[in-house]
Here is the input.
Amino acid sequence: MEVDGLVYSLLPLLPLIVPFFIGILHLFIYPFRFMESSFKKIEKIALFSGTSLTLTTVIVMVPYILAGEVLEVPQLSLYVNSANIAGTVGVALIFFLTSIFNIKAERGGRLKSSMYNFFLLLFLCCMLGLLLSCDLFGIFLFVELTVGVSVILVAHNPSKLSTEAAFKYLIITAVSALFVLMGTLVVFILAGSSNLFTIISNPDMHTRLIENPHFLMLAVACFIIGLGADIGLVPFHGWLPDVFPGSTIIINGFFCAEPIALILTLYNLVYPFYRIFPSNVIIALMMGLGSISMVFGALLAYPQKNFYRMLAYCSIDEFGHAVFALSLLTSSMSFVAGQYYLVNSALMKTGMILSLGSVFFNSGTGNMDSLGGLFGKMKRTALSYIICVLSLTGVPPLSGFYAKWLLYNAAYDFVLPLGGIVAAVSTLILLVCISMISFIFLIRSFHRIFMGQSAESLEKVNEVHLAMWLPTAVVAAAAILLGLQPNILLGIISAS
Amino acid sequence: MATCITAFGVFVKTTRQLIRLLSIQAAAIGLVELMFGFTNLLTGLGFEALIDFFATFAEWFSSAAISPLIIYWGMVKTENISDQPVVSARRSGILVIATSISNILLCILTSSFLPEKIRTLPFVALVFSLSVFITSTRVDPLKILVGLNMAENALYPLFAESPIVLVPFMLVLMIFVNVVGVFIITEAYRDYGTMSIRKWRSTD
Here is the structure.
């Protein structure tokens, strides 16, 4: 988080305003029932327009960031620099791709279409707000709003499972949001400011914070626990394996963007205080949560029969990897490795979830025991899925390989001065073993869903509509492109 | 007083009683700050003091009246359940006493180096832990939501230090989360026909 080269610009405000106002426009339609039938014809295109316009406003900022500028709206404590632009593009891109998928996949639910679009665009606004805000209270407001909106989106699914999952999700994440608020209030009371840039650059505030190390640590612990629960890290993950099967296939796609925003927010909340008070306890807390999540997620994903539950545990494993990489705060490569890993895994998971969403759309089941032999019937979907799986597990020459490579380098760099060559190599072996488990259960899922004999009930299954396989094909193409040219993404991140 | 009310909430049987306790707890916690604002308004008579008083009043009214009413509306739409916490009353009592004693000890230990502005932190921690205890020992979703609100109210003494511009946003968010909670509970009640989250799980 650097404060040099600040340029006043309204550009960081645009990605928040655009989805918010398009969402509000949808909301105006809600009370007018006579407009419902005409809105039905354009509802999906309207959502697509909202996400594509937002993506455009985000992409417009990239050249400025590549030129080394930091765009800031000081009145609202919003900023864009090389530390958050990749995440911002990732979030906007995932929403854009999933809104294409939504055109053919959305079949209605508890929310009326205008409300559904409003909440989705508000969700996008919250994600971008979390990434762009450098004010502690702003971050808390976006976290709380994200919780409320995502819970409603889970409950949109008309199935019974969704309400139970949504309630569990609401309670765990609402309590966790209170931890974020407690941390925010403690820091604000001690430092006298809630702006992270001001806190970093003001030596008086450093002194006030260092004078109360116990309370500073309490605040950091609150941030880690609070956001850890929102992300779904072990042991606060209870809601995640229920939310994936409980949500619609499209909402699961949109949710892939959430960890980018939340994990980078966690880093943005922890790293400034580590710089002020470099305590190993902060590293130990984050690394502990990351490591437990990796092992737990990978081991529990293996025996799952429902592919959504498998993906939920796989997500916990991936969040663990990203948090682990970002927790290596003394390693110079930590942030680059963590952010690259995070953006890549979120994109690949979007590809996988949308591919499996297409399978669910056609077959009506998420049980892998009832599936099989779909490769011949859904070739494009199957190919996209396997490319995303191979990339996520780090197979060269796909994008995930570089993500794993950077992570291993950062881990080696971090452990070597602390524990010597034996500890460093042991850490790498452990990380490779966890990746091997992911590789095995994901390849096994491909085999169970797409290979072997097809059941009688799946005889009439065909390839899904272009709007449903195109987003997965784009992600698969991105995996290949970023694998051959990782500098496209690294160039944006590494400047930080 | 707020601590006693929260502790009493652990043992309360019906949803209606717990909602009443939430209202009283919120009123008790906010009253000190409200009276402080009122005194400032009377002595200072400044525009800033007026704004400050209205912001404090809005917060107090929202947590003591609007949030409980939203949950009460949820109860009207579903059921007023009478049940015990999943932990027996005796064990709950022991846990409540143990939590209170450990907080008092913590308060004594930290009093020497506790900064002036966060002197209320041990009280906040105690009410917060008791509220989370209510949330985690109930199977009626409305009681869980009440526990969540009690935990949010616990942070009020710290929140009084925050910038005044945040108050409207906080109020809207607090109400929004409660409305979302009640919406989900009523939908779940329609789906499952029961107000026990244990039964929701077993009927999946």
